[in-house]
């Protein structure tokens, strides 16, 4: 089976508080959920009806069993998820203090984690080569053997342009606790960017990848590095996407924020859905923006990923164009 989306990298059990607005030390009860950005993106795409899978590793333990069960529940192929006996499944705690304070606490990731034990020699290179979209994150480059596996996976991908129908996406997801320095991260990103069709990141992540500058300057540097679509998140100003011939900006979709942690992953899965649908770039961006907003208005991440009907309903409520209304607004990618 050819996957429409194949992701690689982090997976964890997310432990989220049921007590909202308090510090972690004051939380009295929690719920557990599937987590990890690439895994969440695969779930998000599956909620849009896409054939998705994730390449990752868990501990050989009860939490690993739980994550397999959750992936299957969400319709994500877990056949590339393998156990590591030496290290327990990673767990991530957070505090939820809306509207913009959501600190993360990583457990079972130091000195390493199972998903950083992905090995190059164990990759299914045919599945990686044939996937319509291949998605990875900068976090997967932070240590070996994961770093070498990611590079080998990217080298296996055909180098295609926007009209060829295959996309290789790098989420610039930079988490400083996993790196010795920004310079180390920038050097590893530079090795992967020539293989990348789409790069997605916020201001800080783009700064780590290609240096400081305005969003347009950072997007231009990503394009100069070989990327075909540079997506720069602008915070309260929305998100910009730039190609060599087009620049579009999608304004934020206002919602009452409950937990902002899964919004980027929901954006990613919806962005992939838009690419696979062949929509114009402006529509892809608006749709992904609305999908991210929906998850920001909910407590969990994977469990909160929206369906297409939910996204289009929110767009309609906010007076935005919805799929099918873009036919005369611009050419498809």
Walk me through the structure.
This protein has 10 helices and 14 strands. It has helices at 37-47, 62-73, 125-130, 146-156, 182-192, 203-210, 215-224, 263-277, 281-296, 308-317, and strands spanning 5-8, 12-17, 30-35, 52-59, 76-77, 81-84, 91-94, 104-107, 133-137, 167-171, 198-201, 229-233, 239-242, 247-250. It is globular. The strands form 2 sheets. Strands 1, 4, 5, 6, 9, 10, 11, 12, 13 and 14 form a 10-stranded mixed β-sheet that branches. It has a 4-stranded mixed β-sheet with strand order 3-2-7-8. Helix 5 links the parallel strand 10 (167-171) and strand 11. Helix content is 33%, strand content 20%.
How would the global form be characterised?
A: globular
Instruction: Return residue spans where pLDDT drops below 50 for at least 5 consecutive residues.
Output: 326-331
What is the CATH T-level topology?
UDP-N-acetylmuramoyl-L-alanine:D-glutamate ligase
- Look at the helices and sheets and give the structural class: alpha/beta
How is the biggest beta sheet arranged?
Answer: 10 strands, mixed
- How are helices and strands ordered from N to C? EEEHEHEEEEHEHEHEHHEEEHHH
- The CATH class name reads Alpha Beta
Number of helices: 10
- DSSP strand tally: 14
Average pLDDT number: 94
Please state the CA-atom Rg, rounded to the nearest Å: 18 Å
The CATH superfamily label reads Ribokinase
- Our measurement of the CA-to-CA distance between the termini, rounded to an integer number of angstroms, reads 25 Å
CATH architecture: 3-Layer(aba) Sandwich
Helix content: 25-40%
